[in-house]
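Hi V.,

You were right to ask for the full record rather than a summary. Here it is.
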Amino acid sequence: MKDRTADILPPEGVPITFLISSGGARFGAQLLDIVITFGGLLALFFALIWVGVFDWSIIATLFLLVIFFIRIPYYIFSELVWNGRTLGKRIVGIRVISGDGGRLTPHQIVARNLMKEVEVFMPLTTLMSGTIEDGWVGLAMFAWVMLVLAVPVFNKRRQRLGDMIAGTLVVDQPRSVLMPDLAVQTRVNETGFILDTAQLEIYGRFELQVLEEILREKPRTAEARSRVAEVARTIRRKIGFDETVANHDDWEFLSDFYRQQRQYLESRQLFGDAREDKFHEKAKAAGAAKPSR
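Predicted structure:
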């Protein structure tokens, strides 16, 4: 299990450990996505063949053309909308993240999925179409597919060529919820740090989950206390919290921030405002800027 872990350092400076997804999980997700993209279209074309509307060669060519223009938008659009997840990945429980700890960008998503076409789909589609007359060409394509499929096996981070070019990783998406005890517990030594709505607007659910990992256990060493203090300073600076917080109150500040941030996010969720991370405002603005059709 240890060789599948990857430590990512996001801009906040708080290291996060992800579990690199297994080959079986990635294969299962890919198989589900293929069934989703191919399934309905394949049934339609078999129906056309059955009734004899078109000649088989015409239908085969048309099928390859249509599936190409369905498959690429499906992968790109799904990972853009669901933050690095297609339907298959959502079912299996894995996702794509940026290897540098930043936000997964549209450029990275497009790059990794276009490379998937070059790596696997186009060579396999050409081989299965039966249009290759030169046996050596077919053998070279088959060797290419086998080579690119073997790349993640011998890669420490299980990256395929598209992930290396795009700077992305495929990791497990834990099926966990925020711990209720952190949100409802009452402290004996209540400090009562109060944050306003503008300060709670900044972060999203992802950052809250990262903070939860820190708050699972009180710091017992000087290094752990220093880390808590740095996280508290980073959050105060980010949200514009100007009140003075004593060094021994950093833990209490983070606990208050966690509780109020969680309550705020849950209240926004009731109105359909799902805030995945701190980039939610940019994502919302980008969506609003798209021209309506």
